[in-house]
Amino acid sequence: MRIDLHTHSTASDGTDTPAELVANAAAAGLDVVALTDHDTVGGHAEATAALPEGLTLVTGAELSCRVDGIGLHMLAYLFDPSEPELARERELVRDDRVPRAQAMVRKLQELDVPVTWEQVARIAGDGSVGRPHVATALVELGVVDTVSDAFTPAWLGNGGRAYADKHELDPFDAIRLVKAAGGVTVFAHPLAVKRGAVVPESVIARLAAAGLDGIEVDHMDHDEPTRARLRGLAAELGLLPTGSSDYHGSRKTVRLGEYTTDPEIYGEITRRATGAFPVPGAGGPVPA
Predict the structure, then answer these.
(1) Which of 155, 187, 219, 221 to pair with 251, CA 20 to 30 A apart?
(2) CA–CA dist 69, 280 (Å, integer)
(3) Which residues contact 65 (CB under 8 A, 6 or more apart)?
(4) Taking a C-beta distance cutoff of 8 angstroms, is the pair 144, 135 a contact?
(5) In this predicted structure, what is the pLDDT of residue 284?
(6) Residue 251 in contact with residue 15, Cβ under 8 Å?
(7) Residue 59 dihedral angles phi and psi, to the nearest 5°
(8) What pLDDT, in 10s, does the model give residues 64-108?
């Protein structure tokens, strides 16, 4: 089985609609794909309705968190989307995305970058606006070559010159809320140092003690020594090691299924979840 547990659609900052994403996942030879848009479940219904035969959909979200002044992302899988406390926190984060993006636009303008809010809003469309939309505007203007190049201290990276804060969950609260909604939590790209400051391993250990289920090991922003380090840390802390593309469509160069999760790890994630269940496409395989 080929399993990719971290992708984005136009419901947040990807360029594929949810229907296009599941079609492209099937075309890429995936057996399982997780739709994990930022702080929203808005793409799940469309993805489920369009799910092709042979592909299983894992519903999820990527939650924006902050601890000790450092931003981090928490992947939440197979939670009950109607659980009120978690739904309320997702809404608070989404509501803060527009003023945060506008603040970044103002900071860029102060740096003599001719970006406008209208440009960023056009790029975001109906999606939940975020830094990748601002980064795409910088690419359009020729300020940087790629979206990834914008996620540095010089521009939009954590603590960067044009960075702006938004409402974010405490990750310990995120774990508690996701568990209460029957879901499973995985710390996304925990050592992606090119994006900015990352939390120390002591924080990862504290998160594990608080009930974190796993850490994303195989990711485009982790080099081989980092992956080996994370794999050892996962074994030490009893965490599930996952692998994922973090696919954003044409917004990033990574391909669907470029990094994948071991089927046994996927099976354990589905066994732990009680809030929702993987959705097999018509005639598709029954998940573990």
Answers:
(1) 187
(2) 40
(3) 71, 72, 73, 74, 168, 169, 170, 171, 174
(4) yes
(5) 41
(6) yes
(7) -80, 145
(8) 999 998 989 999 999 999 999 999 999 998 889 899 999 999 999
| Spatial separation of the C-alpha atoms in residues 60 and 8, rounded to whole Å | 10
Residues 3-50 have pLDDT tens digits of 999 999 999 999 999 999 999 999 999 999 999 999 999 999 999 999
Which pLDDT score is estimated for 283? 42
Give the distance from CA 243 to its chain's centroid.
12
pLDDT of residue 218: 98
Q: Would you say 76 and 63 are in contact if contact means Cβ atoms under 8 Å apart?
A: yes
| Token output for 186 | 């995985």
Residues 212/215/216/218 CA torsion (nearest 10 deg) = -160
- CB-based burial of residue 129 (10 Å sphere; 0-12 exposed, 13-18 middle, 19+ buried)? buried
